[in-house]
């Protein structure tokens, strides 16, 4: 890390370009953050406390809910603090730490969604061997690999960003330390940041997407080979939640990061970022719960049990 960066500060603009809505936005992001934490915690408690959820699918879903909590916690508290105090200053070190963990958990989400796609592939294409292939040891190794891989993958974009040269005071037209926002204010080695974004996109984003598409190619092929309509519906319903969240995640991601910069206005970029940073983690537990009969049944039992106790 460049020694002169010890004196560097950033100012996060946030949504100050939308006047007179600071307090409503404060309430909105605070409510979204609380609902994300509560919704994912409920799902984790349900999965952990019931023997109904002992299959690999729920193990990975529990990891996804944990990831959503820590992922949104990287940026939400700071953004809520900015709305509350109207002070967007952030130190260089704090900014780089936020960038590292945001990117690390972002990578972990790619990898975890890929592992979950493979789990659905085995469940639908090789149902008789499902528990043998997706055994406890493999699930633990796969889950640990997604978290470790996410952390290691974050080094690629974070190091060149931290090594770049910045002015003493920099204005980031974003609501957190996003790498593309940092690239625009870097005055030295900015090309390394662009190259790091490309390498990162190729190694993490593209590879994960290709593996997911391959898994769903075999899944869809197998579903079409099922003769009964009921069998097709049952097979498709087991992966519908995962497919819908993957589609939303990658559509927003590519729309934001892989469109030409000139076609995405700063305000539009912020709105799209809000959708995949805050709304997707909020929707994940709801989507997986509403489309899952076992989760809904366990939730009803938990509510009924608590009501009877009172």
Description:
The chain is mostly helical. It has one domain: Rhopdopsin 7-helix transmembrane proteins, CATH 1.20.1070.10. 76% of the residues lie in helices and 4% in strands. It has 12 helices and 3 strands; from the N terminus they run E-H-H-H-E-H-H-H-H-E-H-H-H-H-H.
Question: What keyword list fits this structure?
Answer:
310 residues, mainly alpha, Rhopdopsin 7-helix transmembrane proteins, three-stranded mixed β-sheet, 76% helix, 4% strand
Helical content class: over 70%
Number of domains: 1
Distance between the termini: 57 Å
CATH architecture: Up-down Bundle
The CATH topology annotation reads as: Rhopdopsin 7-helix transmembrane proteins
Which structural class best describes the helix and strand composition? Answer: mainly alpha
Largest sheet: 3 strands, mixed
CATH homologous superfamily caption: Rhodopsin 7-helix transmembrane proteins
Q: Indicate the radius of gyration in whole angstroms.
A: 21 Å
Continuous helix count: 12
How many E-type strands?
Answer: 3
> Taking all residues together, what is the mean pLDDT?
84
Order of helices and strands: EHHHEHHHHEHHHHH
Q: Which sequence of strands runs across the widest sheet?
A: 2-1-3
Note the overall shape: globular
The stretches of 5 or more residues where confidence is low (pLDDT under 50) are none
Assigned CATH class: Mainly Alpha
SSE order and pairing:
Blueprint: E1 9-12, H1 22-49, H2 56-73, H3 76-85, E2 89-91, H4 92-125, H5 130-133, H6 136-153, H7 155-163, E3 169-172, H8 179-185, H9 190-225, H10 229-257, H11 266-290, H12 293-309
Parallel strand pairs: 1-3
Antiparallel strand pairs: 1-2
